[in-house]
Amino acid sequence: MTQPAPSAQHQGPEKGTATGPVAAPPSKQGGGPRAFGLRADVRNLSLLGVLAVLAVVGGITEPDAFLDTGNLQLILTQSSVIGVVTVGMTLVIIGGGIDLSVGAMVALASVWATTLATQDFGFAGILFTAVIVGLAAGLVNGVLIAYGRMVPFIATLAMLASARGLALLITDGKTQIVTVQSVLDLGLPDSYVLGIPPLVLGFAAVTVVGWLILNRTTFGRRTVAIGGNAEAARLAGIDVRRQRLYLYLLSGVCCGIAAFMLIILSGSGQNTNGNLYELDAIAAAIIGGTLLSGGRGTIVGSVLGVLVFTTITNIFALNNLQSDVQQIAKGAIIVAAVLVQHRTLRGGET
Amino acid sequence: MPETSRRGLLFGTAAVSAGAFLTACTSNEPKEKAAAQSNQPAADDKPGKPVTIGFAGPQADHGWLNAINVQAKARAEKYSEVTLEITEGSNDTAAQIGQVKTLINKKVDVLVVLPADGKALTQVGLEAMKAGIPVVNLDRIFASPQAYRCWVGGDNYGMGLNAGHYIGEQLKDKANAKVVELAGIDNLELTKQRSQGFADALKNYSNIKLVARQAADFTVESGQAKMAQLLQAQKQFDALWNHDDDQGVGALRAIQQAGRDEFLMVGGAGAKSAMDAIKADNSVLKATVLYPPTMAASAIDLARALGQSKGIAGLSEMEIPTSLTLYSAVVTKDNIDQYLPTGFS
Questions:
Q1: A39: Cα separation from own chain's centroid
Q2: Can you list the positions of beta strands (E) in chain A?
Q3: What does each C-alpha distance from B38 to A275, B75, B85, B152 come to in angstroms?
Q4: Contact A173/B225, CB-based, under 8 Å?
């Protein structure tokens, strides 16, 4: 759980310079890029602090169940699917958009990839179908938003409705059980690499790629630029529309990968999959410090946000607290996290 | 430009072939035809006067509700004199009210209504009754008995009770037995009733303690997630009751992933996958407590009898009863063959 720490420290300054070359978008960010870098650091550190507090709480209340490798594996595994979705969501939000269709895309990809016809093609067929369906749905989102000039909120809301509908049409409301053994095996302890479940490795890989894209590529700098000020970015010569298209494509692909991971995890495909993922992913990104209006955010923060939520759920379940308490606490934590961020930001600007 | 067009060609071909592949992959038709569902003889098989039955249900977005539609249609087809007017399922109260009104306007002889929300559909039930159309209220009950002629549905409390009794009997000789409960959606009344019945049944066995309970939300995904946490929290226990076989698919997956098998598991609802597992007897799942979708077939039988003004064979009453609560049978390896045809997927 402490692994993200080193990269968190790298990230701040890198990100600060990253925004530099893009013809300095006249930003809303009061203190300028450099100050923001420091603040992102503070924010990630404070999330790590929250995780540490949670670990202490878990360790005190349920020492036997909380403090063992099995539970660490469990928390990371349960974070994997939503974590991959959140990485895509974070990029979209930083680019000034929003993607409400992630849960529905996960559902659609997971049921399309588990039909009897797809299962005939085995492991490769399932993986290919999941990713391509995600990509195709993301493409539709991207084209509608970038070239159809639709508001992202509306376009992805429409995708949410129709993808869920299509998923229901494919399954007819039935649970599609996966019988391809090579897929099922990936979710079982025998396939763990040095104690790390393959799903967690997948999550880590997506996180690293997402971090590289955002912090080490022109693509990442353009994303920050169009999210901060699209007009300035356009004047600076960035093809804003194409950039937006790519961002929704990326989110779709992330959903496809997440769907494949969910198939491994649950051994099935169901049209109810990915329920409310959009809210979980947005919440994780927000408490991770991503600005909902775009132009600012980190992958590491989002991943920490996901881990915080999963750890809370885990501690509640281990203590046998019921879902009503869990939901109240989740809401309270989102509010608290955002309030703390506001204070930090205001503190930085004066 | 030639560069762009070559790239375009490449992507175009890839896109077209991916598209073709995907379209080919939407089919869910099994290679071999599934055995025809057994359709036991109805109460009274003699054809009577023609009856038109209007059927309105919620959107069939999961296995059980889908089975409800299938059962209703199959039973109506069995009667040559019955015409079934079935509406597009909807979870939207306003839409469902509109559908029932349409059926009233069409002057169907009898209505069978499975409301998305029982309380919200009460008014339109009253309206139908006032218009002289008897209403068979299926499962989710209206707020007023005036809104239906006959109610037929499952017994959620009894489901918990029977699950508890079964587990109690299995563990009665075991000192300090621990039981875990994986419930369904917590903000549904039916979940509360099931849990209450389960707790009440376990009270009969002083050696058994309910040590943990978590609520999933009837989906495979949530079943896996919540069960994984329960397994982590309880390093050893003796029995598990899972409210719903759909989420049970995920729960079984979590159990397999944790490599645990020291306990016995009882399911709920009666999905085909669960029944297959019970029959195969190769997992912790040893039984499931029914919430029978065959109630839709029974509702059609009742509606037909109401339309033809006759009672039910086997009862000495002249009239159809006002309420029929179905029994939640415990399906185990011993009686599985009898129930297997009613399993839904």
A1: 21
A2: 176-177, 268-269
A3: 35, 11, 23, 21
A4: no
What's the distance, CA A69 to chain centroid? 24
* CB neighbour class for A213 (10 Å; exposed up to 12, middle 13-18, buried from 19): middle
Tell me the chain B residues in contact with residue A71 when contact means C-beta distances shorter than 8 Å. 232
Rg (CA), chain A: 20
A179 touches chain B (CB under 8 A): no
- On whether any CB of chain A is under 8 Å from the CB of B63, the answer is yes
Q: Count CB atoms within 10 A of the CB of residue A90.
A: 30
**A187 interfacial to chain B (CB closer than 8 Å):** yes
Does B23 lie at the interface with A, CB-CB under 8 angstroms? no
Mind spelling out the 3-state secondary structure of B243-309? Answer: CCHHHHHHHHHHHHHHCCCCCEEEEEECEHHHHHHHHHCCCCEEEEEECCCCHHHHHHHHHHHHHCC
**The two three-digit tokens of residue B336, written as one number:** 């599985």
Location of each CATH 3.40.50.2300 domain in chain B: 51-154+293-310, 156-290
Domain B156-290 is of which CATH architecture? 3-Layer(aba) Sandwich (3.40)
B197-223 in b/e form (b: 16+ CB < 10 A) is bbeebbeebeebebbbbbbbbbbbbbb
From the list A336, A220, A328, A284, the residue with the least C-alpha distance to A80 is A284
Residue A318 pLDDT greater than 60, yes or no: yes
Alpha helix (H) residue ranges in A143-228 = 152-171, 181-185, 198-216, 218-228
Q: Sort strands B323-325 and B150-153 into parallel, antiparallel or unpaired.
A: parallel
Identify whether the C-beta of residue A170 lies closer than 8 Å to the C-beta of residue A115. yes
Run of H or E including B239: strand B239-242
Other C-beta atoms closer than 10 Å to the C-beta of B127 total 16
Q: What tokens appear for A142 in the block?
A: 């991207």
Shortest alpha-carbon distance between residue A239 and chain B (Å): 17
Q: How many CA atoms lie within 13 A of B56 on its CB side?
A: 30
CA distances in angstroms from B106 to B52, B111, B146, B164, listed in the order given = 10, 11, 22, 46
C-alpha distance from residue A167 to each of A170, A175, A176, A346, B17 (Å): 5, 11, 11, 45, 22
pLDDT of residue A10: 43
**Which residue's entry shows tokens 């539609």?**
B69
- ipTM at complex level: 0.81
Inter-chain touch A173–B214, beta carbons under 8 Å: no
**A113, A270 in Cβ contact below 8 A?**
no
The residue count of chain A comes to: 350
Scanning the structure block, which residue is given the tokens 């992958």? A299
**Which pLDDT band holds residue A346 (cuts at 50, 70, 90)?**
low
Chain B (282-341) residues lying within 8 Å, Cβ to Cβ, of chain A:
none
Residue-wise pLDDT for B148-191, tens only, equals 999 999 999 999 999 999 999 999 999 999 999 999 998 888 89
User: How far B229 CA lies from chain A's nearest CA (Å)?
Assistant: 6
Q: How far B60 CA sits from the closest chain A CA (Å)?
A: 6
Residue A30 contacts by C-beta under 8 Å, 6 or more apart in sequence? A345, A348, A349
Tell me the fold of B51-154+293-310.
Answer: Rossmann fold (3.40.50)
Select from B280, B277, B209, B199 the least CA-distant residue to B239: B209
> Measured at the alpha carbon of residue A92, what is the angle toward residues A50 and A78, in degrees to the nearest 5?
45
B168 by DSSP, 3-state: which?
helix
Q: What does the alpha-carbon distance between residue A67 and residue A333 come to, in Å, rounded to a whole number? A: 23
CA angle A155, A157, A163 (to 5 degrees): 100
Tokens matching residue A219: 């693509």
Domains within chain A, CATH numbers bracketed: 4-349 (1.10.3470)
Q: How confident is the model at residue B2 (pLDDT cuts 50, 70, 90)?
A: low
